[in-house]
Specification:
- The chain has helices at 11-23, 63-70, 85-90, 93-112, 149-168, 190-199, 219-232, 250-260, 286-289, 299-312, 314-321, 324-333, and strands spanning 2-6, 28-33, 53-57, 75-78, 117-123, 172-177, 180-181, 204-207, 213-214, 217-218, 238-241, 248-249, 268-271.
- By secondary structure, it is α/β, with parallel strands linked by helices.
- The chain has two domains: 2-180 and 216-241, Rossmann fold (3-Layer(aba) Sandwich), CATH 3.40.50; 186-213 and 248-279 and 300-333, Alpha-Beta Complex (UDP-galactose 4-epimerase, domain 1).
- The strands form four sheets. A seven-stranded parallel β-sheet has the order 3-2-1-4-5-6-11, sandwiched between helices.
- The longest helix is centred in the first third of the chain and has 20 residues, at 93-112.
- The radius of gyration is 19 Å and the shape is globular.
- The structure holds nicotinamide-adenine-dinucleotide and thymidine-5'-diphosphate.
- Nicotinamide-adenine-dinucleotide is lined by residues 6-7, 9-13, 33-36, 38-39, 59-61, 79-81, 83, 98, 102, 121, 123, 154, 177, 179-180, 186.
- This is dTDP-glucose 4,6-dehydratase.
- Pfam families: GDP_Man_Dehyd.
Length: 335
C-alpha cells in the first residue's frame, strides 16, 4: 500500500507517519509538505533514511506538483492546513488558499488519478461552540456553525469534498477530532506554549476567565482512529474522534501543567480574551466506537509524558520559538 500524507511535517502528520511506519512495515509513505512556519523536518529525522519514507516539498495549491506526487498513490490522508485560530483572525488569506483552494485541488487530482481513498482530517470546531454547564456534545449529523476564520475555512473545504463525492464519486471519509496534544506540537498552541514558557521562566498567557473547555485527545489516539476509518470507515461518512476523560477547562488544565513543573497560580497572566472565543467543545464518539475504536491514552498520564518530552527536547522547541515565531509572539502577547 502506498500512502500520501499532506502536511506530514506538522504536528499530527509527523506523529501519523511515525505511527504508520511502525505499524505497517510493508507500506510506503510519501510526505507532501510545503514547510510553512509550522512544518519541521526535524520531526522526522529518525525516518529520513527509511526506504519506505519519501519527503516531497510541495504546495497543495499547485495542481502540477500535486498531480506528480499523487501518481501511483493508493490512499491520501489530508492533514495540510493553516491550523492556528489566533493567526486566522487577523490574516485569513492563507487559510482560504491552503485550506479551501488546496483541498479543492487535491479533490480534483484525486478524482483524475482514481485515488482509492481520500481521508480529510477535519476539526470539531466546524460545529461552533457548546454552552458551559450542559451535557450536549457535537454529533456528525449536526449543522456546521463555524465562528472564526480557521473553522470557516475547514468547513468550506469539507463542502468541496462532499461536492466531489456527489458529483465525481470521490471515495472520501472525514473525521472531526478534538484538540490534540503530544510531542512535536508547535509552541503556538496552548499546551506546548505553556510548558515551554514555564521552562523558560516566563508566565503563561491565559485568555479571559480561562473557563473554556476543550476535549484533550492524545495524538496517538487520533492516529489510531484515522487508521481505523481508513480500514473500516464507510465511504461518504464522517466520524467524531474525542477523548476519554472528564471535561477540563483551560484553568484546570493549566494547573495540571503548573503542578507538573513545580509552579503555581502566580505564573498565570490573565490577558485580553480572543474575539468570539468558543466556550466549550465536546464530541460524542459513539459512531466510531461502533467500528471498534475508543481512546486509550488518558490526560493526566500523557500530559506528564508530554511535559517530559518538552523537557527532553529543548533544542527542538527553542529553534521553533526563535525566528518567525518570535515576531508572532510579540505581536499577539506583547513583550
Ligand atoms: P500543523 O500546523 O502542525 O501542521 C500543518 C502542516 O501543513 C505543516 O507541516 C505545514 O508546513 C503544512 N502546510 C501548510 N500549508 C501547506 C500547503 N499549502 N501545502 C502543503 N503543506 C502545507 O497542524 P496540525 O496541528 O498537525 O493539524 C493537522 C490537521 O489536523 C489540520 O488539518 C488541522 O486542521 C487538523 N486538526 C488539528 C487539531 C489539533 O489539535 N492540532 C485538531 C483538530 C483538527
Ligand atoms: P489552542 O491551542 O489555540 O486551540 P483552539 O483554539 O483550536 O482550541 O487553544 C486552546 C485553548 O486555550 C483555547 O480555549 C484558547 C486557549 N489559549 C489561551 O488561553 N492562551 C493562549 O495563549 C493560547 C494559544 C490558547
Amino acid at each position: 500500500m502506498k500512502l500520501l500524507v499532506t502536511g506530514g511535517a506538522g504536528f499530527i502528520g509527523s506523529n501519523f507517519i511515525h505511527y504508520w511506519l511502525e505499524k505497517y512495515p510493508n507500506d510506503k509513505i510519501i510526505n507532501f509538505d510545503f514547510l510553512t512556519y509550522a512544518g519541521n523536518l526535524e520531526n522526522l529525522l529518525d525516518v529520513e533514511r527509511d526506504k519506505r519514507y519519501k519527503f516531497i516539498k510541495g504546495d497543495i495549491r499547485n495542481k502540477h506538483d500535486v498531480e506528480k506526487a499523487l501518481t501511483g498513490v493508493d490512499i491520501l490522508v489530508h492533514f495540510a492546513a493553516e491550523s492556528h485560530v489566533d493567526r486566522s483572525l487577523y490574516a485569513a488569506g492563507d487559510f482560504i488558499t491552503t485550506n479551501v483552494l488546496g483541498t479543492q485541488i487535491l479533490c480534483e487530482v484525486a478524482v483524475k488519478l482514481k485515488i482509492k481513498h481520500f481521508h480529510y482530517v477535519n476539526t470539531d470546531e466546524v460545529f461552533g461552540a457548546l454552552p458551559l454547564g450542559t451535557k450536549t456534545k457535537f454529533r456528525e449529523d449536526m449543522k456546521f456553525d463555524p465562528r472564526n476564520q480557521y473553522s470557516a475555512s475547514k468547513a468550506s473545504a469539507e463542502h468541496f469534498i462532499r461536492a466531489y463525492y456527489h458529483t465525481h464519486n470521490l471515495p472520501m471519509t472525514i473525521s472531526y477530532c478534538t484538540n490534540n496534544f503530544g510531542p512535536y506540537q508547535h509552541p503556538e498552541k496552548l499546551i506546548p506554549l505553556f510548558i515551554t514558557n514555564l521552562l523558560e521562566g516566563k508566565k503563561v498567557p491565559m485568555y479571559g476567565d480561562g473557563l473554556y473547555v476543550r476535549d484533550w485527545l492524545y495524538v496517538k489516539d487520533h492516529c489510531r482512529a484515522i487508521d481505523l476509518v481508513l480500514k473500516k470507515g464507510i465511504v461518504g461518512e464522517s466520524y467524531m474522534i474525542g477523548a476519554q476523560h472528564k471535561e477540563v477547562n483551560n484553568l484546570e488544565l493549566t494547573r495540571k501543567i503548573l503542578k507538573l513543573l513545580g509552579k503555581s497560580d502566580k505564573d498565570i497572566e490573565h490577558i485580553k480574551d480572543r474575539p468570539a472565543h468558543d466556550r466549550r467543545y465536546a464530541v460524542d464518539w459513539g459512531k466510531i466506537a461502533k467500528l471498534g475504536w475508543k481512546p486509550q491514552y488518558d490526560l493526566d498520564h500523557w500530559l506528564d509524558k508530554t511535559v517530559t518530552w518538552y523537557k527532553n527536547n529543548q533544542n527542538w522547541w527553542m529553534r521553533v520559538k526563535s525566528g518567525e515565531y518570535k515576531k508572532y509572539y510579540t505581536k499577539v502577547y506583547g513583550k
